[in-house]
Amino acid sequence: MKETRRKFIKKSAVAGTGAIVAPTFISAKVFGANDRINAAVLGLNGRGKSHVSGLMKQNNVQVTTLCDPDMNILKTRKDDFKETYDQDVNLEQDLRRVMDDKDIDVVSIASPNHWHSLSVIWACQTGKDAYVEKPGSHNIWEGRKMVEAAQKYDRIVQHGVQLRSSPAVNQAIQLLREGYIGRVYMARGLVFRWRPSIGDKGFSPVPEGLDYDLWTGPAPKRPFTENLVHYNWHWHWDYGNGDVGNQGIHETDLCMWGLDVGLPTEITSMGGKFLWDDAKEVPEVLTSVYNYPEENKIIQFEVRPWATNTEQGVTVGNIFYGEKGILVVDGYSKFKTYLGRDREPGISGDDGEQEATGMERGAGGTDGHFANFIEAVRKHDASILNAPAETAHLSSGLAHLGNIAYRLGKVLNFDPKAEKFVNDPEADQMLTRNYRANYVVPNKV
């Protein structure tokens, strides 16, 4: 599957100002076969807990530092770490001190979306390799800067879309490439998640122990509200990207990977809030269409928040349409095919079924994705990454394009090579943002 992935990256685009307050460049060490890799995890409220577990399961890898702007969370995770591993761990609120620590080799980033790209850039500039949660970026411009930093500083950057390490999903991609369902012309991404009302809690004092300035980082600093910290930032434009830029990045990534395309040239989106009168800014329901006229292919994407039907038994996943049938990916690790107008069941695969995949059980999932990352770090070989920085930029960029089309309420024309809209200054302004002093994504990384 490496050849397929490289071809996908080649089809992609090749292409804030201000001084960045970041640590001084440090040379990364060269790993020998028996050298221990020291890791820091940034962001410990949610997904970061899985990062700790995934890293600690790797051979000769040690999580030495936990970093989060909320000291209350850090103290809780320190206790959890001690109970689970019978070890102590360092705590740090400011990620810049993590970047300055020469004993830390890799950083694993599970902070809110608005921090992702800058954290990766700082890691690359200080000689560290990085694993970054989806989405790789909060906007398209900073995503490209992340890719440039990984290339300039020759660092290993893995995007946290673990389905790329799934044997079953890789088998599904191979079937698409081999024409098992004929010429594949459309991909559909599905994100049907139960997302209840978050209410409107208004403004309140910053809780003791939380460094809210650090939490805000590159984004605009709003008055503190519990509707942002710690999870519901997902539903506010300054910090998150809605569910298409949350859960949906797994599916945008797979749509593009399966169709073997980069960014589209025509985008339209429609949706809104239909259920809850709450503090969310993003749409609850969103339908986006991404058109590729030159390739004669199309992506459809659906976000739904509440009671809904399944599609082909799937609530979160992908459906690929070909002239001979369809291929359905359910979640992160299994697929089915249906052939002909009578929908005869065809080849299926599941990471939990060794006979179906022909591969070792457990090779996929979060732990397997971290294993791929650590192997690439040890060998210092980005070519073996299952989800390199360029794919992070593209899959995140697809979500960003859909959100921009929704927010502007019009069909957009996009130039994938220039990564700019066609004769549309209003839309171009939404490709980036104004960054706060001390947290600026640099124009030249």
Automatic annotation (TrEMBL):
Pfam family for this entry, one: GFO_IDH_MocA_C2
Q: Where is the signal peptide?
A: none
* Chain spans, region Disordered: 343-364
Q: Which domain of life is it from?
A: Bacteria
Molecular functions (GO terms):
nucleotide binding
Which residues are in the Gfo/Idh/MocA-like oxidoreductase bacterial type C-terminal domain?
A: 204-255, 369-440
Q: What sequence ranges are listed for the domain Gfo/Idh/MocA-like oxidoreductase N-terminal?
A: 37-160
Q: What is this protein called?
A: Tat (Twin-arginine translocation) pathway signal sequence
